[in-house]
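Protein: TVP38/TMEM64 family membrane protein
Species: Buttiauxella noackiae ATCC 51607
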Amino acid sequence: MRKLLFAALVVAFILLITFLPPGSLAALQHYQAQFSAWHQQHPLQTALAFFVIYVVVTTLSIPGATLLTLLAGSQFGVVQGTTLVALAATCGATLAMLISRYLLRDWVHLRFATPMAAINRGMEREGLYYLFALRLTPVFPFFLINLLMGLTPIKTLHYFAVSLVGMLPAIVVYLNAGRQLSQLRTLSDILSPGMIVMFILLGLLPLASRRLVRILQKS
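Structure follows.
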């Protein structure tokens, strides 16, 4: 089901780019150029503003984290973008976990009793490795992992560290995708080698993550 969903998203993206109205790509590039110019003039302020926005988005589970990650790849590059996104995403996830633990415990327990039971079994059986596996191949949505982990006795520092490492592979792949998207100059560039590699990496990410989890389980 996930493979079919990903394939559908890829096809939809290609169709969207291919059938954009004349001038649409140029308009998008214009706004991106404006943002890039502001980033060049105020690099520290831009990075700080992006970090704060990303933390708020992930803490409150507001849709848009994926788009922000793509934006980071296009504006900050892989190295700086990875640093910003990884730290912001982990800070947001940790804050969401703490909010669940100290403010929403009763509501989360009543609302998500069934997945909470699965989380408890996994933590009892595998400990921190279970969280690491969830971050690599999320069985539950990102926001739900944060909420449910708040009801476990996991230490905050351990949650931060394991989440940071577990989310890194996906972050790097999406940052690279954002960098490739920013290099589009014409509609024909959608079939460039860089874009094709980007689609391949996005498609292989879930498979590679599951494979890595199995290897670590065996070891």
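Remarks: Residues 43-218 form one domain.
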